[in-house]
UniProtKB/TrEMBL annotation:
This is DUF3891 family protein. It comes from the Bacteria. It comes from Amycolatopsis rubida.
Length: 288
């Protein structure tokens, strides 16, 4: 669940809805400065379903007993995060090997600073505990599964070309993920101050206006990387510089709102969710 506090309400976006938008962005990515993905349908499936493991958790949903509200996605304990993602990855592998490979890379990348794309971690990193050993085993097991999956997919391709394009698709998934998280969570009213890395703002449910940066976005396979700056110019209208899409993108998400209050327990929260109001979030990504 993605949660923000806005005007006396908690605004809730399910992970599968966030994933749906990320998947739609795969179809709009690409112009003279940014290379569109190949294997586009498999990449779209992997991107749209990269958070499939959250389906059951969001349906419950998970409860933050200390804050007495729904659990925001980066507040989940590692011991819950591991099996949650495992079942999502397993489901997608059964349907499409390439999409499953991308989602596995995304999952393990959450324990590896998005495999080097993000400074400071993504918030699913515990202090040194026995869980570290369990986490490391999961990462090692998934890397072994990558090797077998790649063997079945490479076939007559040049291995280095396959690997380079696979990692390009992984990197793009991280960028689309962040664009969708921005549309789900950000305060898109104009604000002052320097642009800050978007990834560093995701943990709080109290968002502040101002420009954000998606760091190290790839431009093409083996090509240079660039930081994308997202600057709201009026409410809901965000200039992206440099602009990576094939035209203006209107991103919409279905959300629910519940009162911003302390909830006694899971039953109290469930009752509020049963009476939640539907809301549509909209963010327009446009050229400078």
């Amino acid at each position: 669940m993605l949660i923000t506090r806005r005007g006396g309400e908690l605004v809730l976006v399910d992970q599968n809805e966030h994933g749906r938008l990320a998947g739609e962005l795969t179809l709009r990515w690409g112009n003279s400065g940014f290379e569109a993905p190949t294997r586009r349908e498999q990449v779209r499936i992997g991107t749209a379903r990269h958070d499939d493991g959250w389906l059951e958790a969001d349906a419950a949903p998970l409860f933050n007993a200390e804050a007495r509200r729904p659990l925001h996605f980066l507040e989940i304990p590692l011991e819950d995060h591991l099996p949650l993602y495992q079942r999502g990855v397993d489901r997608i592998y059964q349907e499409d090997a390439y999409a499953g490979l991308l989602v596995s890379m995304h999952w393990t990348g959450l324990y590896r600073n998005r495999w080097g794309m993000q400074d400071g971690g993504v918030g699913i990193t515990p202090a040194a505990t026995p869980l570290d050993e369990i986490r490391e085993k999961h990462v090692a097991d998934e890397e072994r599964r990558w090797a077998e999956t790649k063997k079945s997919l490479v076939k007559d391709s040049i291995r280095s070309d396959f690997e380079a394009r696979l990692w390009y698709h992984y990197d793009l998934l991280q960028v689309w993920d962040l664009f969708s998280l921005y549309a789900s969570l950000a305060d898109t009213t104009p604000g002052d101050g320097p642009a800050v890395p978007l990834a560093s703002t995701l943990r709080t449910i109290d968002q502040r206006p101002g420009p954000r940066v998606i760091q190290l976005a790839p431009s093409r396979v083996g090509g240079p990387r660039t930081d994308l700056t997202l600057t709201p110019v009026k409410p809901g209208v965000v200039v992206v510089d440099p602009f990576p899409f094939d035209g203006e993108v209107v991103a919409t998400l279905s959300a629910r709102t519940i009162p911003d209050r302390a909830y006694a327990d899971e039953d109290d929260l469930a009752a509020a969710l049963g009476a939640a109001e539907e809301r549509t979030l909209e963010c327009r990504f446009t050229k400078p």
